[in-house]
């Protein structure tokens, strides 16, 4: 079939010319041969025999025929085919010449990779692999290349003022953790690093640099002291805020510890009915009052009637939730009151919670004074869980970081079909 302007327009690859097209039939076991479209192309005169590193025009010395997978045509696999030389560059030696339709040493066209990356960002990877007829590793590699190209020339750490630092488990082993830095103002992931230690946080600040670290105004985090220590050392002007989510979580955990201890004491005393009531009241104690069902309200009323200590713990937990609602000076006053109430209660679990609040009181007050919540970072954690689920797990932290930066770092392009 002769080349023509129609094929040039269909493939829409800049600086490439369609020479001819033909069909190959690939044998398949117990099925009809697969029809595969082969499109023979060549770079235009201006883009032939270029060094892929410096872009200089060089003399060809060896020739080979290569193919690149490109977007399917009417349900048929399609490949670009070209005679590709190796060129001798005085600076980079003998290298394979660059082509305008694919990245150097790649076997997929750029439109195909961008489409594959877009599909991977918006659907399960198993379905992407079946739809494109490629392997899981090929999808991961394409996402990494597209992400690297999208990030090139972009300073994702520029302009950071308010950030959140959180840790994220991505596997079953104890060493499979990431540090995720969120830009609160942009609502995107600004940086990711492998590990859960001070060294990883220090690497972020090394990439950020002292000048930009000095411009940070707010840093939200959980109660991890190793994060706070690095922030204080690297960004002394930034106010550290302890996330409201974790403070309420601490209160809920102490309330659960108290409930389990009291239930155990009731069982030991032979009062199985009351112990069972505490078990049934689990969700009544955890949920917000406005979200309680009728049966949960009844269970909570039974706890109030029969177990004063547990109900006191419930009220303290709700006061903690309330102080983050009102914030400001009223929130700080509630914080002081919660600490005093927990200390006076003489309930061991609540006394420990009071010590935790005293330890983190300045950081909690920063949150109450208007500091950013780490809720956005926690929400991104949930989105990362969705990515892991869609991909049926990641084999490496690098693959997950590429995908997360691609989807939630503002790097994902539109589909070539859009």
Describe what you observe in this structure.
This protein is α/β, with parallel strands linked by helices and 418 residues long. Helices cover 50% and strands 21% of the residues. The protein is built from 16 helices and 10 strands. Strands 1, 2, 3, 4 and 5 form a 5-stranded mixed β-sheet that branches. Strands 8-7-6-9-10 form a 5-stranded mixed β-sheet, with helices on both faces. Helix 5 runs parallel beside helix 7 (225-234) and helix 8 packs antiparallel against helix 12 (308-326). It is elongated, with a radius of gyration of 30 Å. It starts with a helix and ends in a 10-residue tail after the last helix.
Summarize the structure.
The chain is α/β, with parallel strands linked by helices and 418 residues long. Helix content is 50%, strand content 21%. It has 16 helices and ten strands.
Biggest sheet overview: 5 strands, mixed
**Overall number of strands:** 10
Radius of gyration of CA atoms, rounded to a whole number:
30 Å
Oligomer: single chain
Sheet/helix structural class: alpha/beta
**N to C succession of SSEs:** HEEEEEHHHEEEHHEHEHHHHHHHHH
Distance between the termini: 29 Å
Q: For the residues shown, what is the average pLDDT?
A: 87
The fraction of residues assigned to DSSP E strands is: 15-25%
Query: Which regions have little confidence, pLDDT < 50, spanning 5+ residues?
Result: none
Number of H- or I-type helical stretches: 16
Report the principal-axis shape.
elongated
Helix content: 40-55%
């Amino acid at each position: 079939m002769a080349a023509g302007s129609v094929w040039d327009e269909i493939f829409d690859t800049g600086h490439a010319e369609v020479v001819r097209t033909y069909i190959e039939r690939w044998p398949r076991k117990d099925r009809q041969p697969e029809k595969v479209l082969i499109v023979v192309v060549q770079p235009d005169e201006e883009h032939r025999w270029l060094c892929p590193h410096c872009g200089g025009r060089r003399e060809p010395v060896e020739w080979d025929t290569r193919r690149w997978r490109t977007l399917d045509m009417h349900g048929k696999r399609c490949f670009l085919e070209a005679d590709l030389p190796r060129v001798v560059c005085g600076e980079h030696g003998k290298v394979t010449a660059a082509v305008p339709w694919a990245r150097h040493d790649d076997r997929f066209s750029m439109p195909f990779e961008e489409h594959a990356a877009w599909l991977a960002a918006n659907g399960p990877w198993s379905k992407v692999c079946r739809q494109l007829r490629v392997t899981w590793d090929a999808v991961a590699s394409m996402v990494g290349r597209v992400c690297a190209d999208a990030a090139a020339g972009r300073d994702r750490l520029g302009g950071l003022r308010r950030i959140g630092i959180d840790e994220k488990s991505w596997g079953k082993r104890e060493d499979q953790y990431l540090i995720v830095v969120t830009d609160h103002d942009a609502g995107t992931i600004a940086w990711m690093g492998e590990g859960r230690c001070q060294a990883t946080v220090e690497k972020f600040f090394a990439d950020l640099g002292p000048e930009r670290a000095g411009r940070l105004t707010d840093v939200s985090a959980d109660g991890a002291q190793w994060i706070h220590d690095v922030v204080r050392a690297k960004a002394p002007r930034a106010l550290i805020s302890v996330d409201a989510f974790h403070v309420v979580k601490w209160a809920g955990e102490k309330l659960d510890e108290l409930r389990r201890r009291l239930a155990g004491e009731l069982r030991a005393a032979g009062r199985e009915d009351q112990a069972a009531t505490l078990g049934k009241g689990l969700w009544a104690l955890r949920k917000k009052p406005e979200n309680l069902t009728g049966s949960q309200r009844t269970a909570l009323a039974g706890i109030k009637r029969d177990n004063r200590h547990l109900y006191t713990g419930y009220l303290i937990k709700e006061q903690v939730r309330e102080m983050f609602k009102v914030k400001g000076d009223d929130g700080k006053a509630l914080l002081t009151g919660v600490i005093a109430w927990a200390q006076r209660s003489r309930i061991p679990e609540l006394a420990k919670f009071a010590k935790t609040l005293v330890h983190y009181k300045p950081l909690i007050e920063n949150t109450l004074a208007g500091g950013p919540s780490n809720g956005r970072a926690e929400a991104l954690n949930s989105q990362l869980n969705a990515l892991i689920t869609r991909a049926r797990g990641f084999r490496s932290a690098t693959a997950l970081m590429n995908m997360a930066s691609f989807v939630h770092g503002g790097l994902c392009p539109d589909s070539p079909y859009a």
